[in-house]
Amino acid sequence: MFRKTVWRNTASDAVSFHQDQALTMTAFLLKTYGPTSFLLKEEGQAQNFRVCLGDPHTCTCPAFHREMEPCKHICWVLMRKFRLPREHEYCFQKGLVERQISEILHGFHRSRTPRRESGRGVALKLPSLQGREAGSVCRKVIQAQDVCPICQEELLEKQLPVSYCRFGCGNNIHISCMKVWADHQELSGQDVTVKCPLCREAFGSLKLLREEVKNAARLYAAAETEKPDRHLGVLCHSCRVGPVTGTCFKCTVCRYYYLCEDCSKKGCHPEHPFVSRTKRRGKWCHVGEDLTDEERGASSQPANRSIAPDAEDPLPEHVLRRLPAVQVRPGSRLLDPGQQCRICLQSFALRQIARTLPCNHKFHADCVDGILRKSNSCPLDGFVVHCPATWSTSGRKAAPQLASCLSNARDKLPENNLKDLFIPGVLLLDKTAKVAPSHGTLNSEVQGDQSQIKQLRSPFPSGELGCNPNQEPRQPGKTRATDVLQS
Length: 487
Fold this sequence. Notes:
single chain, 4-stranded antiparallel sheet
């Protein structure tokens, strides 16, 4: 068969760069013109691009016309849409003939191992039929390797809120992707029906989709937007700085013992080996034991490290029991459309237990408890739940508090903190001082006998604060300050 493009044995540098871009970007498949032609929209971009597979491949983006190499959009279609491995010989060619495209369409490049079901999805009960719309279908259980048909991301791996086709195929799709799909259709009116991108049947009403988008926004926490090198919830045991930024070091012997990069370079806690990671959701890697203390703090390159699979600390059982947990009751906001657990991607149901982590993420207790018993961090944003340096125990119920915040607040207080405390119309007495403190125009002196008050002035006239000091209720055997002034 005649080929228009030259066959390659290895990927060029430009194609390798575009493959890296394709694997890290988020794109939406807005329209399919046939088995090999697609309309894409990149997240955060207003312009749409059309990709056509053939001999050669084509794309309407400026990068393709400038380099005449497979761009990131072509690589996205090959690797995301058709699940072609980046090392496959078809993935870095400038074009493919009809026979090769047919092999890709039929999935001959994929492994023949049977699809495994996700334990998390199977463990949950199927949604109740009660309250379903007439003519609607059951929602399909999410299995491992199920992908969103719009962004081509794996659902259980991406962990974004999902909706499902209610009057057609019952497949699950990201709520955010369906919003992009509906916006591309330029629909208007609350009663307009959105078409499913898979079966082309009625997915649901536009009003319901907008309500799901609004409610799903409450499932996100501020910690998800933090920089990945900020290790949230971690306080350095040496310098007490938190959260640790940059490379975080953890002792492999002492549980919940963390150091920042600066303290690690100083040789703090030299008696035990350490593991480290740069991103809070990354893997812990061994730090070379034969290195000096200064080199240990600088050995953050992957070439000097090996992954430590057992480095994660489990969450103590007594801390797990103290995390907030509520039972879902009728009228709860957790029952609103779009509200769901982002681990199993199933909705909350009545009488289920919902657990809230310190980062404000909510999950099924059955889903998150097993994860926390193995890993001491939130499965979504990597927020460390338990760090003894940041937790203090109160007297009665041992409620967790951030000790670092309290210590910082104490450090900011002046030596005589009553001098900066000013309450209009109220006399403050310092039991540790001979003379009561003064501030502004409120001056008072109390020496020995408190019946003698030399001066009491308030910057506000009587009654300006909503109460008249002359109307202060009398107490038997006690003289008011105003009576002393009047006498």
